Every structure is written in structure tokens, then in C-alpha cells.
Amino acid sequence: MMELLDTLANPAFWVAVLRIATPLILGTLGVLLCERAGVLNLGIEGILVAGAFTGWLAVFAGASLWGGVAVAALTGAVLGSLHAFLTVGLALSQHVSGLGITLLATSLSYYGYRVSFPKVTTPPTITPFGPMDWLGVPVLSQQTALTLLALVLVPVLGYLLYRTPLGLAVRMVGENPQAAEGQGVSVAAVRTGAIVAGSALMGVAGAFLTLSAFNAFFFNMVNGRGWVCVALVVFASWRPGKALLGALLFAFFDALQLRLQQSGGVALPYQLYLMLPYVLSIVALVLVARKASYPQALMKPYRKGER
Amino acid sequence: MRLEKRNQSSAVALALAPVGAVGFTLLIASLLVLWAGAPVGQTYALLLKGGFGSVFALSETLTRAIPLMLTGLAAAVAFRARLFNIGAEGQLYMGAMAAVVVGGLHGGTGIDWPVPVLFVLMMAAAALAGALLLLGPALMKARLGVDEVVTTLLLNFIVLLLVSWMLDGPMKDPTAMGWPQSVALNPELELSKLIEQTRLHTGLLWGCALAVLLWLMMKYTVLGFDIRATGANARAAAFAGVPVTRTVVLVAMLSGGLAGLAGAIEVAGRTSYLTLDMSPGYGYSGIVIAMLAGLHPLGVVLGSVFVAGVLVGADSMSRAIGVPTYIADVIVAASLISVLVATLLTQYRVRWRA
Fold first, then answer.
1. Which residues in chain A (91-130) have CB-CB distances under 8 A to chain B?
2. CA B86, chain centre distance (Å)
3. Is the pTM of this model over 0.95?
4. Which distant-in-sequence residues (6+ apart) come within 8 Å of B261 by Cβ?
5. Which domains are assigned to chain B?
6. Contact A304 B322 (CB under 8 A)
7. In whole angstroms, what is the distance from residue A74 CA to residue A101 CA?
8. Does the structure show a pLDDT above 90 at A225?
9. Is B322 on the interface with A (CB under 8 A)?
10. Residue boundaries of the structural domains of chain A
11. Looking at the domain that runs over A2-7+21-126+143-289, which CATH code has it been given?
12. How close does chain A come to B18, measured CA to CA in Å?
């Protein structure tokens, strides 16, 4: 017990929590934006991989770190446009399209990595983002600029969704597309925009892994983080503030299991610790299930003029 | 752009749709092959030869098709009822684990049952293990409205960690020199070979028989009708007296059971023990196969042979010419998306201006 308190009192623990939370915050905001507009985006797992790969590759090829982030966002946006074309334009199943994009983006990234580096045994590295020493805030100044970006984006997205006409349009097409169309809002345009922007955020979330958390690209480095984000959005009742809370809570338990595993104080197989985050995601889904207020038009394709 | 429902799909369009989808996929793959700096024609020739070009190649392809067939059927039956089971990967491992528990660990418990009994028990345990893993998400969906996609996906990761734990401890093979593999199955429980000197085993017959049974069930039984009705419109089905919750639960047991069997048949037919990498994503590929087959059980058989051929052919092509094997995954993913689009275009026409 004392050991646990020691861990919690250690700033290094909270630094780890915030670092683990960053890609989850960015990814969850991305999913949230898509789902608010009524479109499930299961492409996230693949978009994280693709963003991690292209962002890292750009920096490796000589681009600046922010250039890499921009490339990752662009990659996400391109994959998002494909998802929008399939689910909004052609009104195909959102589940299947998303999974297709995850498979495509993942295999393309792995293929691209192997073509670019056919014979490497140790992954080539780049110099990642450094800590923000100039900030002078404990815990936060040991994070990179991408973490700050993620934290700033939470209120920004909240403001956009709840205080601007654009946000109202996004929420309308996610709740009642017929009514939105009646108000002169183009459902297709708003949904497409939301998916593209949300997917760009997912791309940045991927880039955080290779440009900030680590300095190289590994196979399987995303490891289900995308699916966790999809679960966190439900847990957050589609609200940006709660999404931040959910991501931090998740990261807290993830960091805690890492510490417990390292300290070896509790003699359990390490796999049980690694399971904890996934188990918690499912538990969170069950806990909020009764009162989850899904966007009413989520997963319902909209065809103009069709009832 | 706007979609307009066609009154009738023309025969030409129906025939052209798969051709167009394949052509588009090959176009993308060709660009990637060029990027890798390899000659396109030769790459495809090697891929075809490696997948289908000889008795050995064909036997390898069919061997690889067996687990894909079963996970494909698992996805097809679940998706037909709109139960989006993305957890076949985890269910496969649960099945493999159960098979090893019954067929490999029994030596230590002192139970000495005749082989046929043990074989039936092993397969039943595998199917049950897969089914139970999907039962949770299905009940959560039916009772609480929790989206089954996320829960089944997350369970895949949990099961893999469980397998890793089992291989570290309770099921570890003490003679494997630290290699993470389970104790081997009782050799008498292994499936026999279909062709001598190849790896092709009787699991192929299991897969084909289950596909035919599933097709007959979907077409001619009340349960099959209930499944189709639930998938077409759950509310209307409930209104018409279809027991929707019961149907969803039964479908979950069926789908999870098929995926569990895939694991047991892999262990009994090919690997003879459980490892952490026994499935390179068979569960996920099964979904693609089910979609390629239009969720038709007999189509799944063909689809699994196609996907297996691409995977096996890419392995052999990659060894010969150096194009990364991931090209196979790109081809599979791209063909999924292009087949979906092509099928849609046979049912709708696109009006670019409103």
C-alpha cells in the first residue's frame, strides 16, 4: 500500500500518465468528431498506423518534426476522404468500410516500410520532439508540444461543437439528417468534413507514437489503441471534456499496471497487468451502457430523398 | 453526387462487377510492385505459380484455406444477423486452447478415455470455448445495447494475453527449451493427411461440410429464416414474432463455435500444439472473405481459397523476387473495398448532378 502511495506521489508517474494519454486524447477526439456527425470510423486503428508511419518517414527523409505531423494529418485526411466516399457518398456499411480501411492502411504502411527498408534488423531512428522545458509547469513541461496540442484541442473542439453554427450543423447531421437537410444544411458536405477532420486528428495521434513517444516505427506498435479510443468515446458520452477525462483515467491505469509490473511487489503474471486496460475499456462500456445517449443517426447511412 | 436505385440490375453489370473489382485491385497492387522496383508481370506470374501452380502449391493453399474457411463462415453467419463479430481471432485462440486442454493436458490428469471419445470432446470443447467468448458481447449487445464491435475487438487482445500467460505457465511445454509453445496434442487425436507428403489434412472436409450445412440451415430452416429476418430488419422481425434476442444469442454461439473449431482444427491438423503466432490474423481475414462472398456460405469456400492462394503465393513470390509479402494483405484489403463498391454499383446508379 505504501508502495502505491509512493508511486502516486512521484511526478515521473504523472509524466507517464500524460504521455500515455496523449495519443488517446487525439484519437478519441477524432472518433468523437466523426460520430457526432453520425459516422462510425473503425478506420482509426489503421489510420494510427499510417499516421505513425508516414509522419516518421517524412521526418526520416529530412522534413521538420512539424512537417512530419502535417504529413501524418494529411495521411489521415486522405484515408478519411476514402471512408467518407464509401460511407457518405456510397452509403456503404460503416462497420465494413472502416474495417476495410484499417486493413488497407495497415498493410500499405507495413508494405511501405518493408519497401523503404528491406534489410534492416534494428529500426532506423529519428530525433523526436523534446520536452517543453521553457514552460516551467511541473509534469507538463516534461511533455512534448504534441501533448500540449492535444490538451488545447479539447476545449477548442468543445467550443466548436457547442458554440458555433458549424458545430450545430455537425451535431444536427448526427442526430437528425432529414431535419438538417430541411434547414438547408448539406448533410453530405458536413459529414464528409467531419470525417476528414477527425481522421486527420487520428493521423496526428499516430504520429505522436513515432515522433514523440518513441523515435522509430515498429510493427504492431499501435496494438489496439484505436479500438480503445472507440470505446472511450462511448464512455465519454460524446463530450470532449469527458473524453479527456476518460483518456486520462485509462492512461492512469495503464501507467499503474506498468509500475506494479516493474516493482514486482505483486506476484502475478505480467499478462494480467497488460490485460487490465482492455478489461477496463469493456467495463467502462458496460457501466455507461444504460445511459449512453448515442447520436441518433449514428451508423445510419443517409440518402437524400429516401426515408 | 446522388445514388439512385436501379429497378433491375443488368446482367452485364452483374458480370462486370467482379471483373472491375479485380482489375482495380490489380491496378493498385501493380503500382506498389513498381514502387518496390520489381517487374509487374513476373511478380504476378510468380504469385500465381506459388499459390496454384503445382500440386504442392495447391496443397499449401488449401491447407491455409481451412482456418480461413471456418472464420469466414463464422463472420458470414454473424453478419447475416447483423451481429458484427470481429472477435473470430480471439475465438480461434480460445478453441485452440480448449483443444490442447482436452487433447494434450489429459495425460497429467490420469483420465484415460478412448481416442474417439476424446476427439469428439476436444472438438466440442473448442466450439464451446469460442461460443462462450462471443456469448458475452452478444448478451451485452442484446441486454445493454453495448456495441459488439468494440467489445469483440478488445477481447481479441485479452485472449492473446491469456494465451501468452498459459504458454508461460500452466500449458508450457517443458521440453521446448523455453520456446513459447504448449504441450503437444496426443498424436492419436491429430487429423489425418488428405494427400501424403503434404500438409493438407482432413480439416478441409470439415470446412466444406460445415459450409454446406450452414447453407442448408440458412435456406431451409426456421432458424435460418429468423437469422435473415433479424439481419434485414430487427424491429420488423420482432413485430412479426421472430425471437430476436434468442436468435442473436444462437447466432453468437454458432459463429463463435465455428471460429473455435478453426482453432482446434489448426492444432489437430497442422501445428499439433498451441503457439502465440499460430494465426496471422485468420480471424480478420475471415471477415474479408465473408464480405467477398456476399455472406454466402458456399461463396466463403471459394473466397477462402482465393485469399489463401494470394497469401501462399505472395510468400513464395517474395522469396524469389523480394517484393514484401505485405502485398498480399494489400490485395486482400483492396479487393474487399472494391468488391463492396462494385456490388453497390450494380444496385444503384450514381447521378453526379442532383
1. 91-93, 95-97, 99-101, 103-104, 106-108, 110-111, 114-115, 118
2. 10
3. no
4. B70, B95, B123, B126, B127, B130, B206, B210
5. 37-323 (1.10.3470)
6. no
7. 15
8. yes
9. yes
10. 2-7+21-126+143-289
11. 1.10.3470
12. 17
CA dihedral (B286, A112, A220, A142) positive or negative: negative
More confident residue, B123 or B168: B123
Cell of A162: 457547442
* Ramachandran area for residue A129 (φ above 0: left; ψ -120 to 50: alpha; else beta): beta
- The gap between the terminal CA atoms of chain B, to the nearest Å, is 7
- Please tell me the distance in Å from B323's CA to the nearest CA on chain A: 7
Which position has the grid cell 443517426?
A: A297
State mean pLDDT over A228-256: 92
- With cell 463498391, the residue in question is B341
Q: Quick check: A97 and B32 CB within 8 A?
A: no
pLDDT digits (tens, 9 = 90+) for A108-117: 999 999 999 9
Percent of chain A whose pLDDT exceeds 70: 97
Q: How far is CA B158 from CA A273, A276, A280, B109, in A?
A: 11, 9, 11, 27
Which amino acid makes up residue B15? A
B334–A231 CB contact, under 8 Å: no
Return d(Cα A75, Cα B249) in angstroms, integer. Answer: 40
- Contact indicator for A225, A50 with CB cutoff of 8 Å: no
